[in-house]
Amino acid sequence: MTDHAPTRPEQMSAFICETCGMQYAPSARPPPACWVCEDERQYVGWDGQRWTTLERLCAEHEPDIRAEEHALLGIGMKPSFAIGQRALLVETPLGNVMWDCTPLLDPEIIAEVTRRGGLAAIAISHPHYYATMAEWSETFDAPVYVHAADRDWVMRPPARLVLWEGDVHEPLPGLALLRLGGHFAGGTVLHWAGGAGGRGALLSGDIVQVVADRRWVSFMRSYPNLIPLPAEEVQRMARALRPYPFARIYGAWYGRVVAEDGNGVIERSTNRYVRALAGEFNVSGENGE
């Protein structure tokens, strides 16, 4: 009789795309492709599709935690990974909300968020920033708010996933999720009424992109592939923001912040964008502003 060694089950890993940072459901082998990067709004890395895991990220990266303003904490990672966004922790008397998600979740980040009261909710602007949202949700026992229009892009659904519908949802008083669309059908921004010393702040991800000249913002279907949005869509997005006062706009990365006159910046930037699509630049390239 021949003895056979018992078959060992294959180890399961929740693989993370190195180009966009999306974490997939646990599997024995990496997925055949990253469906987010195959989409025209993103891209497959120039070295081909590559995968990592949260364990490797924790070994190779460290937190980059910075105070943005009173009751607003940035949570990123260094060196930069994938798209490079940082999350924002909004602290309120009724609980904390994390806006967008960063792939790294390590003991230092867990300790800092716990010290500040944990998370009452996680809200995410669009699929490019879903990252390790299931890990964050499980760690802090927090619901994750994703607009229902983007449900097909959720590659690892958290147990407490909330697919909200409509154009406005309030996860906590004073915080309003606004579906603007644009970049994605469910593209969302977060209006924080108490931000900027009570003048209001808009946490925009890159649904509304704070550009290098931080007096302006812009709007695109794809940023890396330079696919613009139609003028009518951008004007509709601007109209949706008019009822909400905000002085400051926080983009998706450290330093991408409009410091003052946020509502005015949205209006001027929308007008400039629409004129540009209509060809209303003069020969020198100036737009008359």
Give a description of the structure.
With 289 residues, the protein is an alpha+beta fold. The chain has a single domain (54-277), classed as Ribonuclease Z/Hydroxyacylglutathione hydrolase-like (Metallo-beta-lactamase, Chain A), CATH 3.60.15. The protein is 20% helix and 26% strand. It is built from 7 helices and 19 strands. It has helices at 35-38, 54-60, 107-115, 133-140, 195-198, 231-241, 262-277, and strands at residues 16-17, 51-52, 62-69, 72-78, 87-92, 95-99, 121-123, 144-147, 161-164, 168-172, 175-179, 188-192, 201-205, 209-210, 217-218, 220-222, 227-228, 248-251, 257-258. The strands form 5 sheets. It has a 7-stranded mixed beta sheet. Strands 10-11-12-13-18-19 form a 6-stranded mixed beta sheet. Strands 1-2 form a two-stranded antiparallel sheet. A hairpin with a 2-residue loop joins strand 5 (87-92) and strand 6. Helix 6 (231-241) runs antiparallel to helix 7. The N and C termini lie far apart (88 Å).
